[in-house]
Amino acid sequence: MKRLTGLFLVGMVGLALTGFSGGALAATVCNTGPPGNPPLSGTVVGGVVVNAGDFCVLEGANISGGLRVNEGGILIACGSTINGGFIANGAANLIFGAEEIDCGGDVINGGVRISNTGPGALAPAPSMALERSTINGGVRLSGNRGVLVVAANTIAGALLCRSNAFALEDEGLPNTITGAVTCNFVD
Predict the structure, then answer these.
(1) Which of 5, 8, 79, 121 has the greatest number of CB atoms lying within 10 Å of its CB?
(2) Where are the alpha helices (DSSP H) in the chain?
């Protein structure tokens, strides 16, 4: 009887996966080029990826399926909503909601994991700036080599730092964080 039940469950899982896999969508590759070119905006289903050497500007985008920046990619996100979280490993530069460039804050529904970013390709900007945004999930920053700014955000989760070259800067604009904080801030 146990064997029959196990086979039934395996069959049901296989049937469910077959039914759902036909609707999978490929991620949209974002390479809008240097500032001045039209940004990616509007509704994007299936996620967004920024590849090595690509420069992506999001402005007013509503992304379902998450956002990923691969090694060497550059991202500027302004006034956008990202459903499904954000991940970057080895990005050249990441800018979210920077007031200095009149960039509205973002909403990220899901966790944020940024590692090995920097030292920064858009000088004098920091290699990673997460500003004036709402993050509904934890933020993990590890192994980043450039200046990191985390300022004026609402983070519904933990803010965890490990092995970054610099302490975080908050530019005198503190964050509201509901979870544990393992990062050090400097002004």
Answers:
(1) 79
(2) 2-21
